[in-house]
Design brief:
The protein folds into two domains: 153 residues, Creatine Amidinohydrolase, Chain A, domain 1; 244 residues, Creatinase/methionine aminopeptidase superfamily (Creatine Amidinohydrolase), CATH 3.90.230. The longest helix has 26 residues. The chain is of the alpha+beta class and 402 residues long. Helix 8 crosses helix 9 and helix 10 runs antiparallel to helix 11. Helix content is 36%, strand content 20%. The strands form five sheets. A six-stranded mixed β-sheet has the order 4-3-2-1-5-6. Strands 7, 8, 9, 10 and 18 form a five-stranded mixed β-sheet that branches. The protein is globular and about 70 Å long.
Length: 402
């Protein structure tokens, strides 16, 4: 097998990337933006299909009125050319024999973009004040415009490539959670169950999907190289929402919850399952049953045109009727894709409508220190006429003997 050839972006993917760039260019033109400079790793990936994994040398994706290109440090050149999905890769810095436009990224932007007065689009929720001030010393910036939401809006509707990656992620997280539950059933600890789930996912990836990278999107201080994740918590620690598994072995009367993410080619979905150990008390039993009913209220409404807020209220009514109105969650679902918690949320006040191509979680849950938590999370794809499950683990009561 030629590894480089296996990992190269397909012509189909390159076509989707060109469509994304064209849509972004049209969006910024409406705002009077001359040049868009994207820095958030997820957005750079979205418009280039390139994830350098280590971003101590920042990668940029730049869109002008008639051009679009990656600007990366020289050390990332070969990776970007071999696995990215754009035709133009320019470099800054120094590494080996790779040709650079300039040593510094902003000096390179000056060389490439010139000194004409321009309106620059930046991600207002990501670009730092230092970056904006420095850029003014290199380019003739007449104004800045926030284009963060423009990128978020484009990422909301997934194309066929993105959906395919999310389906593979669903297969992996199903396996991770299922294997973790099997380990818990056999009397293993939270940590051992999580390890077993992660190992099972890695074996499946090795057998079927190793042409796709499994790395996440890093920051300047850390690199997220492997995103096959299963974690598990029990009882009052479930109220934390997220924490590392421990050596605790769940006991009869407990609630425990394996959860999983797995990123394939940049994209991930989510699977979470609450497990009853033996027999639980009346409050936990009542909460678990209400959680299953709340999910059904959402599932029967999932279709294009449904309003996010309406889904939330339908699920919350089940909890209020069951006596849990004092611990309602702020949301009961969220987008998935390049981020593990993407826009938008299924929450009060979100009057947007579902549309085909959206991918989101359905996870109406309850959390408190006394209860622990009940929350099953499935990831779904909104289709033309309804929805498709991307995760397929057991959806009714899950009980192990402990």
């Amino acid at each position: 097998m030629n590894v480089l050839e296996e990992k190269r972006s397909s012509s189909e993917l390159r076509g989707y990337v060109k469509e994304r760039i064209a849509k972004m260019r049209a969006s910024i033109q409406k705002k009077g933006v001359d040049i868009a400079i994207l820095m958030r790793p997820e957005n750079v990936f979205y418009f280039s299909n390139f994830n350098p994994i280590i971003i101590s040398h920042v990668p940029y994706f730049i869109i002008t009125q008639d051009d679009a290109f990656l600007l990366v440090h020289c050390i990332r050149h070969d990776h970007a050319v071999n696995e990215g999905a754009v035709d133009k890769v320019l470099c800054y810095g120094k590494w080996g024999a790779t040709k650079a436009v300039a040593m510094d990224a902003m000096d390179a932007m000056r060389e490439i973009l010139g000194d004409k007065a321009v309106c620059v689009g930046v991600e207002g929720d990501y670009a730092s004040m230092n970056f904006l001030e420095r850029l003014k010393t290199k380019l003739s910036v007449k104004s800045y415009v926030d284009i963060a939401q423009d990128a978020i809006d484009l990422r909301l509707i997934k194309d066929a490539h993105e959906i395919r990656m999310c389906r593979i992620s669903g297969e992996l997280v199903d396996l991770g959670v299922t294997r973790a539950i099997e380990a818990l059933e056999a009397g293993e600890s939270e940590a051992r169950a999580a390890t077993e789930g992660q190992y099972a996912m890695r074996l499946l990836w090795h057998e079927k999907y190793q042409q796709y990278e499994v790395s996440g999107f890093s920051n300047s201080e850390t690199a997220d190289i492997d995103t096959f994740v299963v974690w598990c918590m029990s009882n009052e620690r479930l109220n934390y929402g997220c924490d590392c598994p421990t050596g605790y072995v769940p006991q009869p009367g407990d609630l425990t919850m394996p959860m999983s993410w797995a990123r394939i080619g940049g994209y991930n979905v989510e699977n979470e399952r609450t497990v009853i150990v033996g027999h639980v008390n009346e409050e936990r039993e009542r909460a678990y049953s209400a959680m299953l009913r709340a999910r059904e209220q959402i599932f029967k409404r999932l279709k294009p045109g449904a309003v996010f807020e309406d889904l939330y209220f339908a699920a919350m009514k089940e909890y209020e009727d069951a006596g849990f109105g004092n611990i309602l969650p702020g949301r009961c679902g969220h987008g998935m894709g390049l981020s593990t918690h993407e826009f938008p949320s299924v929450t009060k006040g979100n009057k947007a409508e579902l549309a085909p191509g959206m991918i989101l979680t359905v996870e109406p849950g309850l959390m408190s220190a006394e209860l622990g938590a009940v929350r099953n999370s499935d990831t779904v794809l909104i289709t033309e006429n309804g929805f498709e499950f991307l995760t397929h683990s057991k959806r009714d009561r899950i009980v192990i003997k402990g």
